[in-house]
Each structure stands twice: as C-alpha cells, then as structure tokens.
Design goal:
By secondary structure, the protein is mainly alpha-helical. It is built from five helices and no strands. Helices cover 54% and strands 0% of the residues. It comes from Thalassionema nitzschioides.
C-alpha cells in the first residue's frame, strides 16, 4: 500500500502523513491490477458521508458476483476453517485420526 513505510519524527506526524497519503491516493491507483469491483467498493465507501448508512447488500452482491465470475463455488470452507481442522488433527493421537493423514481410512 502506498502509505506503508512512511517515516516521520513523531507518531502524530506519521499518522498525519498516512492520512494525507490515503486521502490523495486515487481509487484507480489503489486498485490498479485488481478486479473492477474493488475500485467500485472504494469509490462507494469514499462517497459515503459520516451519517450515511452503507448499503451492505450492494457491497456483498458486488463481491459475490465477482466470486462466481471467477469460477469459485460456495462450499462453506474458509481459510480459517481449514486451518482449525488442521490444528485439531495435529493435536489428536494418530490412532484417533480419520482420513488421509490418520488411521481409520477405508
């Protein structure tokens, strides 16, 4: 991200520089090389006023359509689900494991 690695004399100055960089970075520059949905997302967010309530259904639909267009299937498997399963398996004794990495496989 363009605001990473900025240097300043104080924390306050650093955060001000980060804010300035975030405010001056265009959505086109920020999202270059990514799906257009990301730019749409940031433009939508930047258009919101403080008192506006975001249209979460629109934002969810934006990325859901991208998800399916890229050929993914919704299978309820998430990175953290797979990681949790792997961690649980590693804590089990080998004779209690089921499946490719463990005992009871038929």
């Amino acid at each position: 991200l363009p605001w990473q690695g900025l240097k300043a004399n104080t924390k306050k100055q650093k955060y001000e520089r980060i804010m300035d960089r975030k405010m001056s970075t265009s959505t086109e520059q920020l999202c270059k090389g990514y799906a257009t949905e990301f730019r749409s997302y940031f433009e939508y967010c930047r258009s919101l006023r403080f008192e506006d309530r975001p249209d979460y259904a629109y934002l969810k639909r934006l990325f859901k359509e991208l998800f399916y267009r890229k050929g993914f299937q919704y299978d309820n498997m998430f990175d953290w689900t797979v990681l949790n399963l792997q961690q649980e398996r590693s804590r089990m004794p080998p004779d209690r494991q089921i499946g490719p990495s463990g005992g009871e496989q038929r």
